[in-house]
Design brief:
Blueprint: H1 5-13, H2 17-24, H3 28-35, H4 43-56, H5 62-69, E1 74-80, H6 85-100, E2 104-110, H7 115-127, E3 132-136, E4 154-158, E5 168-171, H8 173-186, E6 193-196, H9 202-217, E7 226-227, H10 232-243, E8 250-253, H11 256-268, E9 278-283, E10 296-299, H12 302-317, E11 326-329, E12 332-334
Parallel strand pairs: 1-2, 1-3, 3-4, 4-5, 5-11, 6-7, 6-8, 8-9, 9-10
Antiparallel strand pairs: 10-12
Amino acid sequence: MTEPNSARTRARRGPSLADVAGHAGVSTQTVSRVANGLTNVEPATRDRVLTSMQALGYRPNRAARALRSGHFRSIGVVMFTLSSYGNMRTLDAIAVSAARAGYSINLVPVEHPTQQDVSVAFSRLLEQAVDGIIIVIEAHIVDRADVELPPGLSVVVIDSTARADYPQVDTDQAQGARLATEHLLALGHETVWHVSGPADSYSATRREQSWRSVLEAAGRPVPEPMPGDWSTTAGYEHGKTIAAHPEITAVFAANDQMALGVLRALHENGRRVPEDVSVVGFDDMAESDSFWPPLTTVHQEFEATGHRAVELLIAEIESRPEPAAATVLPTRLVVRASTGPAPQR
């Protein structure tokens, strides 16, 4: 038997609002309220409507809803490098917080932190109809006044506090580096060597400046920083140099991955940690307590950073913005077995 045209059409387009209303025994207005997440529906009625939606396979037409409301319930994320521990943890927190608030995320990675690549990323997100954008690009490019962020669109910046025109969220980089450096000096080390992050990194620059300031304030020698790229390979290469200089007894690495490379080089070259050399990292990545020895490091609140960024952005989107000030989240030093008193000469 040939299926009636009306049945074929309904199957092809899927169940309608009226179909759900008829199945649940309520009005289409009630179904609309439930589909839009409104709270002025009795719990028992809402449960009945949701059961009918599931039974019929009903999917709300979000595109039509967005055209009516002007909101797409979508957040764009522009991020440079997905390989770093901090960025991945922050992205995970953004995704979880957005989902809890009923928003999806649309990620656009930026291959090179240049004005052109950042502008292209903004254009792609605008084409995909997002309500706002979170920028996670720690390079100084976002700090420059000539980098035009999307006009008329809600924006929150992570890892930069130099933009006064948009809300920003950052970890207190200077505090973390100060805690690390002061800890090593308090253990009796004459000075602290630094394996730094990339020169174009906002976070790395802040950590290096703070390390330098602590040494200068204490009247200690300031060694030339050893520039790295956040990788274990960079830490390992600098670690071989450190191992060859017995006068180096304390090292502050700008992240845990480079600290791990330093530890490996020291072990391979017969330098004991912490008896000969104390090592401190930055991030408190999940595995840092399983390094050998367990790593003393600076803990960052990546989850809080991502959550706060989403909170600020949604407030902007929903027209209840907070002042465009910087949210700076504190760090704390986690002392483990990789640091100890300076060796006796």
